[in-house]
Amino acid sequence: MNPTPKSILRLSGGVFTLSVLRLTDASVKTLQAELAAQGSALRLVEGAAVVLDLTDIDPSLSLPYTEWLETLREAGCFPIGVRNVSDEQAEAAAALGLPHLRGSDAKIATAPSNVPLVTHAAAGSVFSQPLRSGQRQYARGGDLVCLGAVNAGAEVLADGHVHVYGPLRGRALAGVQGDESARIFCQRLEAELVAIAGVYMTLDAEHPLWGKAAQVSLDGEHLHIIALEN
Amino acid sequence: MAQTVVVTSGKGGVGKTTTSAAFASGLAQRGYRTVVIDFDVGLRNLDLVMGCERRVVYDFINVIHGEARLQQALIRDKMLENLYILPTSQTRDKDALTTEGVARVMEELQTQFDYIVCDSPAGIESGALRALYHADAAIVVTNPEVSSVRDSDRILGILAARSKRAEEGAEPIREHLLLTRYAPKRVQGGEMLSLDDVQELLRIPLLGVIPESEIILQASNQGIPAIHMQGSDVALAYEDVVARFLGEERPLRFVQPEKTGFFKRLFGG
Fold first, then answer.
1. Exposure of B90 by Cβ count < 10 A (0-12 exposed, 13-18 middle, 19+ buried)?
2. Statement to judge: residues A222 and A142 lie in one domain
3. Of A156, A153, A192, whose CA–CA distance to B155 is shortest?
4. Are A148 and A130 in contact, with CB atoms under 8 Å apart?
5. pLDDT tens, B157-203?
6. Best residue in B125, B133, B153 to probe A by mutation, most A CBs within 10 Å?
7. Do A132 and B125 make contact, defined as CB atoms within 8 angstroms?
8. Within-domain flag for A54
9. Which helix (H) or strand (E) holds B99?
10. Residue B14 annotated as binding site
11. CA-based nearest residue to B42, from B81, B77, B90, B1
12. Residue B181 CA to chain centroid, in angstroms?
């Protein structure tokens, strides 16, 4: 019997952060003039894939996609899809290989970092080494346990709880996918910032529990920090 | 096999080059064949501190690019016969340090020396990454102030993640803390972080404390590594550093403010 030929295709998922370029005018001429005028501002997205956001453009218009693509590629950015378009506009875009993307807006733009030291930890990960300035650990789908210190400038994130048994001096974010029941536990609260399900708070040495063992929980829209009793 | 030691810090101006020169000289004084390499391409300084700037013909970058042989670029120290300096180029930039080129030079040095001391540039860009990549041990130079401590912390994270040892899953780099420009009086006055504060924040073994001193400036202006400034507390402190690095026990000195004597107090010394 012949062995079944192996497929060369592998399908898997991935999450990517993309820049969104919002066009407020459909005219190609205006776009070209604008690009020429503020070329340096666009250098930020040079070489990057962008999604064209057409919220501000009349949904009944037939759009000059071919010219847009040419102009934008010349300027060094690569449109890979469109969003907020009418069905007709989406169809025309699809014909040119630009899919219609339906995603929600990111509320906060994250600044690109030169030397990312982000590690995605498996759920329930335990770290025995101190986390140092510039390091980030994210426990996707579970809790994160750090046995050593989380130093100033370091960041720990978890979909579930965050436990820090050394001093917590950096940032700790629990329930980052929106779990409001997530909590942060630490032996020494000296954090720059704590957050649960997107509700955050910055701290300083004035805080009554500064340097103490504490837990942080979320009640509605307020973070509560209470002492950890032995 | 030579041991490779990187002298690094993240922050600039904390004393990396001064330490590299003094530490390499100290190892050579004890009879180890030692080479000290300047990784700060474009801001060539080590040759000045070692007092050999007029003898630089070929440099590290020439060797990497195959324009000179290693033996042509190595400069023998004027005071110690088993110490060599591999200077860098002032006219090129950090991109001239290719990964393969550095690896080749390091391999060649391995066979000729006992210790390779790498003087890292400041920052966390390619130059600093190349300098620490081959390290077996690291001396993290830190000043007793918060921004220096923060940058040292960052470098420690990079040492643990981006070195050859980390990539190969080998035993991690041995980390040593060296506190420089320490002024016990100002610590007492609360103007500077104390030794305990810094250790509490960084949590790595202490290799030594170098006191703040005029002598350092004099030494580098004259092109003499500070360890040769006989009788000075800086020289003694660097000798202790070398001894501790080699596994000897030495008590800490120069961490308490000088006691003002009775007569000095009386006559306002």
1. middle
2. yes
3. A153
4. yes
5. 999 999 999 999 999 999 999 999 999 999 999 999 999 999 999 99
6. B153
7. no
8. yes
9. helix B99-110
10. yes
11. B90
12. 14
DSSP state of B85: E
For residues A60 and A136, membership in a common domain is answered with no
The reply to whether A114 falls in a domain is no
Residue of A165, A193, A197 whose CA lies nearest to A178: A197
The whole-number average pLDDT for the span A56-82 is 84
| Model confidence, pTM | 0.69
Listed residue (A215, A183, A211) closest to A199, CA to CA: A183
- Dist. CA A79–CA A93, nearest whole Å: 11
CA atoms within 13 A on the CB side of A13: 1
Judge whether residue A108 has pLDDT over 50: no
User: What is the CA angle B43-B48-B49, rounded to 5?
Assistant: 105
CA-based torsion, B199, B205, B210, B216: positive or negative: negative
What residue type is B269 in one-letter code? G
Is A130 in CB contact (< 8 Å) with chain B? yes
Contact between residue B8 and residue B160 where contact means Cβ atoms under 8 Å apart: no
Cβ contact, residue pair A148, B203, below 8 Å: yes
> Among B200, B124, B140, B149, which Cα is nearest to B175's?
B140
Report d(CA A156, CA A164) in Å as an integer. Answer: 9
Note whether residue A186 is domain-resident. yes
Beta-bridge partner residues of A72: none
The neighbouring-strand residues paired with A174 are: A196
Number of domains in chain A: 2
A208: domain CATH number is 2.160.20.70
What's chain B's length in residues? 269
Phi and psi at B86, nearest 5°, equal -110, 100
Tell me whether A113 touches chain B (CB under 8 Å): no
Cα(B42)–Cα(B127) distance, integer angstroms: 10
| Residue B175 backbone dihedrals phi, psi, to 5 degrees | -105, 135
| Rounded Cα–Cα distance for residues B32 and B82 (Å) | 7
DSSP string, A201-228: EE--TTSTTTTS-EEEEEETTEEEEEE-
Residue A164's domain comprises 125-227
For residue A105, name the pLDDT band (cuts at 50, 70, 90). very low
Residues of A in contact with B125 (CB under 8 A): 114
> Looking at A47-56, A156-165, A180-189, B226-235, which range is the least confident one?
A47-56
Q: How many CB atoms lie within 10 A of CB B231?
A: 7
